[in-house]
# Entry
Amino acid sequence: MLRAAQSLGKPGSFGGPSTTSDLSIDEELVLHTIGWEPVELVTGVSIYSVPAGVWNWGSGEIVSASSAHLQAFAGAVKRIHAECARVGGHGVVGVEVERSVTRHHITVELTGTAVRPVADTASSKRYPVFVSDLPAKDFTLLETAGWRPLGLAYGASFIYAPRRSAGTAIQQKGQNIELTNYTEAMYSARELAMERMQEVAIALKGTGVVDVKVTEGPMHFARHAIGFTTWGTVVALTADHHRTIEPVVLVALDDASAAFDASSLRG
Amino acid sequence: MTSVPDDVPEAAGRRFQSGAFTSGLTVPDFAACLQMGLEPVGYVQGFCVMQWGWYGAGSPYLRGTTPYGGTHGQYSESWRCPHGYVSADHRTWGQNYEQAWVENAWGQGFGTAYTRMIEEATSIGAHGVIGLVDTTASLGEMGVLEFHVRGTAVKVSGGPPPPDGRPWTTYLAGQRLAKLVEAGYMPISIAAAVSSIRVWAYCVTEYLMEGRAYSWGAQVNGAEIDQVAKAHMAARQVAREHVRAQLHGDSLHGAAIVVSERELSEGDQVVECTLRGNRVRRFKDFDPLARPRPTLRLS
Amino acid sequence: MTGKPEDATAAPKDLPKDAGRRLQELEHGLFTSDLSVNEFLLIKEVGFHPLGFVMGSSIYHTGIQTRKWGSSQELTKLTEAMYNARELAMTRMEEEANELGADGIVGVRLDVNYYEWGKDAAEFIAMGTAVKAENGQSYRNKKGAPFTSDLSGQDFWTLMQTGHVPQGLVMGTCVYHIAHRGLGQTLSSTGQNVELPNFTQALYEARELAMTRMQDEADELGASGIVGVRLEEKTHQWGSHTIEFLSLGTAVVKTSDEVTLPRPTTIISLDN
# Structure
């Protein structure tokens, strides 16, 4: 600290590039250990319109909603990708995915930090620019094990919940039976969303998708519409073979509730 | 009570004369602070209460007027209706523009509170202020916004005061700060800015936001709402530019970005983005740590 | 359990009978505590033993005070009420700890409860775990009372490593009425986001008063500093213009210059 404080009085000789990042110091240090550094805070936003009236009647999939979600995701990814490439980043880590689905539009907002290797020489092997929602720590671990993120994969499907006829409802009242048409509809919608995510992953030539998030549930504005959305980071092995990481086992004496929260320092 | 608060109030002066230091640091942060050679000297704070409202009337004829009569910021973009004359209330043009007057007022409130905190810190001979917390809160239904900045003033044991006498500041404290310094960064100050983008929807945006097809006769499904998406991108980019302007060649570390959207009236909304972080300067060469051991805890 | 101080043998007069019985049971060596296992072990690590869970409470009628619509001022009666009620709860908790022969109380929580049955009445509660040094050395504060602190077991351990010992939970409060703005005032500044210096001044003063009072308490304890200062704002049930500013922290005294914290090692945790 003393040396750092004394440096304020001297003219700076360690200028370096001016960067911006939303990484915590832990994340930055952990990135440094594999020779990477942050470049710039980057974002991508896209908003797609959903035609009026599609939520309330029909059967099967709500195609226009599913496609709006897909396009909004693709649009946001494209923009954050472009911002990353423009500032010379090799990829974006720790992307925060915020989505909102409302009656008339679907919004996808992505924010993350573009990163690159410190020794970025022309001879070093270039991979395509990636966008990943894995935190810097996970990126480092993957890299240590010989893997690399390739991009975000995403899928969605919105369906109409099947309606039971009044007669059926009365018949089934008081019975414990499976509502097979519901099971089937939900099942296939979930499959559809996952399948779409996999298609994106295959297009990126990935080996797998990790840390997949799934959201599902009825739309708050239309009770008969149910949405399934899913996204995750596509990864592939880039080293010759997988390297094991061999963790050290430890017993911690801090309680989870007493553990320190980084965000509290940011105000 | 009648004087304008450009000085530390009497109560604070009394507080600082007392023997005991106050520190807003948690115990682990306090310990880390002592370990790295920082002595807490006092808890310092600054305030500024501003009248806060959204001005500029909702009528399309008053679009683009600012309550200060000045000019808009850097970003401005407009859209024209492709339809020709439809009706008197048809929104024939739309505009996105940066509301510099809102950004400046925010900067003034935040800056004033920050400066007052620095004054308190200077008056007790601090070298820096760590563990900063800033909040902006509206007080009840009073139409006012309070900016409050506080932190723990510290001295570097045996170290020189800052060259220009102005204490350095950072949101970080404790081990995080220790690690930052170890990584070769010296905290310079916090950096914070707001961007405010007003969106006056034109007919196409309006129709798309309501899920209507906009081309007469032809149904257009699933189009991107270009005007609003651009406003969102611009809000983030403008905030980043404002913060960049405060960096003077230094770097921004640990940034936090918050975006909010609010509708003022039909077809009239504001997209606001707050970006804050730590302005840091490299004082020694990049010196990476050894790769850490992965651990798995058993509790 | 050994080494009970002389002054603690007589049961404190204002503790309820049931508390007395519970505490007697605790004196036979059983301890109760809301500490987690981790906290318990860390407290043992620095040479303390938990004695029992202690608490104190006070139900206080907070009354009302006339406020002037257009002026910002401290409501001294309310300030006093809030202060006394908390002080009573704390003192009762300390008495319980004293009864157990404790050196201090860790993990103190201060709560305020409102009940349906009591309009304008509130219950102020203080609870924590009484601890005693195992080496027989007294850690009582300058006033001869057990120290109090809102530190967790982990924080207590860490603080001891820095050569500091807690002296007491210190607090300061100030109930303040923020002026309503007159019509004339509202109109004159309409249309611009500008500073309202009177408001700034009022809020500044209210918080400073709370902090100064906290500092005075620390000075009485001969503390060298206060760590973990928090500023809380509560409107309780008084409406939005009357705000209580409460500042809380743990007063500490420096006993050694040595910081014995080991240097942390860097790890990557694989836990979620």
User: Anything to note?
Assistant: The two ends of chain C are 42 Å apart (CA to CA). The CA atoms of residues 72 and 201 of chain C lie 9 Å apart. The domain at 25-183+195-254 of chain C is CATH 3.30.110.70 (Translation Initiation Factor IF3).
